[in-house]
Amino acid sequence: MVSLQAYEKNLENNTLNKGNSEIEKSNLKTSCKIKKEKLCNQLRTEELKALLAEEKIARTTISFYQYFSIENPQELRNTMYKKFNELKVFGRIYLAHEGINAQISVPNDNFNEFKACLYQIPELNNLRLNIAVDDDGKSFWVLKIKVRNKIVADGIADPQFNMQNRGKYVTAEEFNHLTDNSDDVVVVDMRNHYEYEVGHFENALEIPSDTFRQQLPMAVEMLQDKKDKNIIMYCTGGIRCEKASAWMLHNGFKHVFHLEGGIINYVNIVKQKGLVNKFKGKNFVFDDRLGERIGEEIISTCHQCGKPCDNHTNCVNDGCHLLFIQCDECAQKWEGCCSNACQEVIHLPVDEQKNLRKGLHNEARIFNKSKMLNFAPII
Ligand SMILES: [Zn+2]
Ligand SMILES: [Zn+2]
Q: Do 141 and 174 belong to one domain?
C-alpha cells in the first residue's frame, strides 16, 4: 500500500519542491481548491498545440504501468499533477485503487528529476520505463491525470478477485525457449481481434473479442480443457495480460505466465540480443500510425478487395470513422471510405454532412470479419 504521507514527505525533501510543501499540502484537499490552485489545464487545445509547436526543448515519450494498491488515488493525483506540471510533463496518466498507467512525454532536461520523483513511490522504485523509439516527442501537448475506477476496464465484479496474485513474468528468452517445446504450452493473445488480425506470435490462440472485458470470461471458457498446460499470455505492453494472468489464476488455472513488457519489450530485447523473432506481422498501436511493422510477412488482407494488406485506417467519413484494413488501391478508389454510402456522404456539402451525423452515436466502430453484418457493408 503506498503511503501518501511518505510520498509527500519524500517530495518535501526533493529540491524541486523546496518551500512549496506546506502550500501544496493545504491545497490538495477539495475540488474547489483544485480549481483555485489550477491543478488542471486552463488553456484551449489550439493554444496548447501552438505552444508545443513553438517549444524548442527535446522530449522523450515514455510509457509505464504498475499494479499496486493506492489508498487514495485522488490525493496522489493532485500531488503528482503539481509536481509533473512543474516539470512540464505532457500526456495522460490514469490512477485507480489498483495502480497507475501512464503515457507521457518528459523534457529531456527534466528527465532525471522526473524519474527521481516517480521512484520515490516505493512500489514504483526502479520501474521499467518504456521509451518510444520512433517518436518526435510531439504526441502530447497537455498533462491529464485522471482518477478512474480501474486502470484497465475489466468488467470484473467479483470482490474476491485480487490483483496481488498474478502470473509469473517470462522474459523474451524464456518465451522463445518455452515455445520451442510447445506441446505443453499455450500462447494466448490478450488483445482485441483487430490487433491480432495484423500481427501475432506464431501459433498464438486468438480470443476474438472487441473489448478486454468481453475477453476475460471468453479466455476462461476457451481454455477450460487446458488447465494443466503452461499458459503464456501477452498483449502490447503487458498491462492487459498481467491482469488476465491474475484472472486465470483466480479461475483455477495453475500454470499462468505473461510476457514481461508485452510485444514492445519483446521486440526490443530480440533486436538487442539477436534472438529469433517469433512475432509475425505488424504490432497494432493506438496512435496515428495504427501499427508498426515487426515481421516482414503480411498476414491479413484488405477488407475491400481481399489482397494481402495490413494497413489499418479509419473511414474518412466523419459520421462513420470505421476502423478497417484498406490497401492503397482501394484507398484511392474509395477515397479513403469504407463503402459506397460513405463515399457519397463525403461529397455532400459540409452542413448536410453535419445534419446527417445528428443523433448518431459516437461509439468506436470497428470492422469485424466474424460479425460483418453489424457494420456498414463493405462493397
Ligand atoms: Zn484493397
Ligand atoms: Zn464508412
A: no
With a cut of 50, say whether residue 12 has pLDDT above it: no
Distance 378 CA to ligand 2 centre (A): 9
Distance 311 CA to ligand 2 centre (A): 16
| Residues at Cβ < 5 Å from ligand 2 ion | 315, 317, 320, 322, 338, 342
Contact 76, 82 (CB under 8 A): no
pLDDT in the model for residue 315: 95
Give me the helices (H) in 225-290, please. 239-250, 262-273
Q: How confident is the model at residue 73 (pLDDT cuts 50, 70, 90)?
A: very high
For residue 145 the three cell numbers come to 491525470
Nearest CA to 214 out of 249, 240, 237, 238 is that of 240
350 φ, ψ to 5°?
A: -55, -40
The number of the ligand nearest the C-alpha atom of 338 reads 2
15 and 113 together in one domain: yes
Range of the domain at 123: 4-147
Chain mean pLDDT for the chain: 85
pLDDT digits (tens, 9 = 90+) for 90-101: 999 999 999 999
The CATH number that applies at residue 270 is 3.40.250.10
Catalytic residues: 235
For residues 358-369, average pLDDT: 69
